[in-house]
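Notes, p. 3: input format for complexes.
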Amino acid sequence: MKKTSVVCIVLLAGLFHGCAPKDNIILHEKWPFPVGVAVPGARTNNGNLSVKTADALNTGSPQHKLLKHFNVLAAENEMKPYAIMPASIPSENNWSSSYNWIDADRLVSYAQKNSKLLRGHVLIWHDQTPAWFFQGNGTLGRATIEELYLRMENHIKTVFEKYGGTIAWWDVCNEVVDHTSGGPRQDSNYTRIMQDAGKLGSDRYEYVVKAFEWARKYADLNGGQNVKLFLTDYGIERRFPGEARSKIDEFEVLVKYLVDNNAPIDGIGFQGHFRLYDHTPEEIGRGIDRFSEVNGKKMMIQICELDISVYSNTKNEANNTDMSDDILKERLTDLAAFYREYFDMFEQKYREGKLDLVLIWGIADGHSWLNNHPVTDRTDHPLLFDRKYQPKEAYWVLVK
Ligand code: XIL
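Output follows (400 residues plus XIL):
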């Protein structure tokens, strides 16, 4: 019997008994590449549901039993700088002992007990980092470049002294490039401090090279020779309609600068915050091709924060907060088809040796960050499980 018939029989049997069909087919087993998930932990509180239900490591959370579908885990928030760094600047000799690992360690020990691999998010990011990290004796109360570099090195060293080779992949730098100006991100204190120090043009990316050098050095010194180091961003997969120069072009400038300066980078993470109808799988596939080799250096691509909003700019819904039940029903079917097309394309890129991991940014719709972004308090449906933690059509098409 064909697999599709089996799925139909299972679905029909479930309906006949008046109960929803169960998610008995393990998602990651259906794909040749690892399929990961961002795990909401003690610090994750998106949407308007309780933190307790959001915290998937809490065995009482309805999300907990859905973790079985994924073989790679990333902390949605719990390994970010703000989550592990102290509230105020530590003294130089007290740096690592001031860190708080409680929430990050919960995920690490769950992963180890359940034979899951880990993806680290994130070492260096302008966002979700304590203010003190960027303050000091420089321009307008900002840190000088020397102060910043010392802290970056201390932070990276501290993380690798703690986790060594336990975490297989790390996002070393995230969201470095601006989405409008065609240069380094203007609302980043990293960029400001580089500019304060008189850096011009691409040399404003010097801190990114340093971050990769420190990450490689301290990973290697602590048994993490196999840890792979990634640069991640959003909107780098394609040229936007009507734009002469897109973020993808500046991202390429950055990656070339890293390669030319021998930064020890292993790959590029496309965040993959896509929207239905707006981001076609073909375009994303071309983006993967474009970055899988840069200036003669091979780069592994990972899709590291995949979710697909049902609100589409193509349909002028950028600011909408709701949609009718009829439209939603249609969207959920289209969403499923999109997920399948993306995954089929990912599989092709995997077979071409260009992509080796896909990670979905959240488990169930009710806890997705997209319920607050880019529009606060709107109900979105971007994931594989619904607000009642039941499998959506998108799940069924991916396990077929
Ligand atoms: C988001 C989390 O999902 C939210 O819970 C948090 O409030 C804000 O950050 N790009 C990233 C992620 O690199 O770290 C972001 O995660 C989503 C966008």
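The pocket of XIL is lined by residues 44, 46, 76-77, 174, 271, 305, 369 (CB under 6 Å).
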